[in-house]
Amino acid sequence: MFDRSKCNLCGDCLVKCQYIDYDRDRAIREFTALTEGKEAPILKECITCLACNEYCPTGANPCDLIVPLAEKTGAVVVPEKMRAFLDRGMEVPNKVVKGDPDKPVLSVCIADPLLPEGVLGSKMFQGLTIVKGSDYWCYVAYLHAALESVVKANAPKFFDNLAKLGAKEIVLLHDECYALATKIGVDYGLKPSFKPVHIVEYILNYLKEHRSSITKLSRRIAYQRSCSGRWTPELEHWVDEIFDLVGVERVARKHDRENALCCAFSFTRLRPELASKVQDMNLTDAQEHGAEAMVFICPWCQLAFRKGCQERGLAQIYLVDLCRMALGEKPFPC
Description:
Elements: H1 12-15, H2 24-35, H3 42-45, H4 51-55, H5 63-73, H6 80-87, E1 95-97, E2 105-107, E3 129-132, H7 148-163, E4 169-172, H8 175-187, E5 195-198, H9 199-209, E6 219-224, H10 235-246, E7 248-250, H11 272-288, E8 293-296, H12 299-304, H13 306-312, E9 315-318, H14 319-326
Helix pairs in contact: 9-10
């Protein structure tokens, strides 16, 4: 939630944005207009990557002002195909695969079709109840189309459906589900009746408990930080710990950590030329710093880079699969 009391109109949020070219005077002028409820060009130019929330030195959460205003003013015109793609998430069939009631539940959201083969059969998830489908979807993807009202309207259903599972802990496979359960939902006055656990935290704890089963991979990788990770900066420490445990080097490149670039999936149809440019910058950066593979925590990020990675000969690895490789469940791609 945007906190006007914390905003000192310094302009850092827009000056540091990697997708626009604003000097400080313009940044201050435009953001001042937004705080007064007025329209400004940034409403059309924002790609909703959330980076400005992290750039803000006072924690005012500027993106949480930009997105609702973009929807209210109609600044973003969502193409029919993009809206149809988002809406298909409401129709994904639900499925519950029951496991040990004393173990956590793993919520897959609607990501199942995008997951690499065998992921859910990993020994890391043995005995867990697995749920998937639209009943367990967070709808946060609509924020990337400046449609926050859809997220807010459906958030209670997300909390209620997960609560009905009766689990003490629910492991959330998708970044955005975790963000809704721990951060966004708070802004909406919602509180989970269960303990939300990020998939990264879960597998980190598993690896720590099974150190003797790990074979160091000794590889160099580039990590694609998801935009949703901006809501949960603690995720970065967990990811680094995992990389250390499995023996991969996260190459120190320009577009990583706070300076990470969006995967561009969310604005491919809105601004195709910018999306292509951003992906090219990202992949070039990874290759120039000696990465053998791109590692992803978000299945949609991985989908967005499928073609680019193939063209450049960069392996694509889902983070869970990287851990499976270290545990001997599958080989590292050649």
